[in-house]
Amino acid sequence: MMITTKGRNALKVMIDLAQHAGEGNVSLTDIAERQHESVKYLEAVMGPLSAAGLVLSARGKSGGYRLARSAEECTVGEIIVAAEGSLAPVSCLDRDPPCANAATCLSLPLWRELDEVIMNFLNSKKLSDMLK
Q: DSSP readout, 51-102?
């Protein structure tokens, strides 16, 4: 499991939106300027966040993005998963049905426990915690 630039930037964008939540819709141009990223790249980051229901978008002169829920209701885990997909430490945890060796694999419980620890940690952190 490695969190890529896309996952890190998704969190940075969400923090930025939380910081400017009282301002209505925030333009992607403004976010890109503050985060030193290209608008085109951030458009790719916003797609999964929007699909996951974490951000709302509006078009037009006063368009832009805003949080779909309060910063207290968004977890870091759901933001990272929206951007990255699974954070499972080994690929066999992502398979459905599990691999043919799952019933006899002595290391599988370790990987399941590690996955649970990672997700519990990330889900224990709220977007609002990042503002402190």
A: HTTSEEEE-STT-EEEESS-TTT-BHHHHHHHHHS---SSGGGG-SSPPTTT
